[in-house]
Specification:
Number of helices: 6
Shape: flat
Number of strands: 11
Strand order of the largest sheet: 1-2-4-3
Mean pLDDT: 89
Structural class: alpha/beta
Distance between the termini: 41 Å
Amino acid sequence: MNGQHTHLGTTIVYTLTKKTRPDIGIYVDRFGRVEVCATKGTSAARIHAELERNWDRILSEIKTKTEELQAPFEKVYEPGEIFLYLGVQVPIMIMENRDRPKDYVRFENNRIDIYVKDQSEDAIRRALASFYHRKCKELVRASIKRYQPEFKVKPRSVNIVEDEKNWGTCDSNRELRFNWKLAMAPTEVIDYIVVHEMCHLVHMNHDRSFWRLVGKILPDYEARSRWLSLAVWRMNL
């Protein structure tokens, strides 16, 4: 069953799906389509009120999913290509000098400047990856220092790694690992992943006690987590 609702001059179309739980769920799929899940007999007025309560989130997710569908699948390593850094989309500039002793990258003037001896795609990507790795290490260590007073236990080690599945991990030896692509996220999102993994130093699973501790330290952790779920497709090299 389809429906639509207009609020603040914008109209969205949604699919209404029946469910057994009494609450109303609103979801945006990977194609930007809106699904409302509600029990049979839920009034249109209640559904529309819930849509309006989540209006900004819904529109933001529709916009993000639409952009994702329209975006090119692969990056090109040419001047002007856009990459994420600390949550902001910034262009890259490439400077080639074969006499340069080593490649390096620096961020200045809202731009990522890449200095390489060889202007090949592999060289540029390696330089960028090294930059993000270095920055992630700095940002994660600063975040751990900032939130350590919230914990009685300390991590035994902290490492920055390449991980296609996780933003961060914590093992039973209190060893923390963080994905270097986190440097592409805003600092508040990096803080969320750091706090999430530090909470695993206390609770190794995702039980209620774990989430209560996360929420005590970061009451808005769900919004920070949502940023990652919406932006992950842009966090690539």
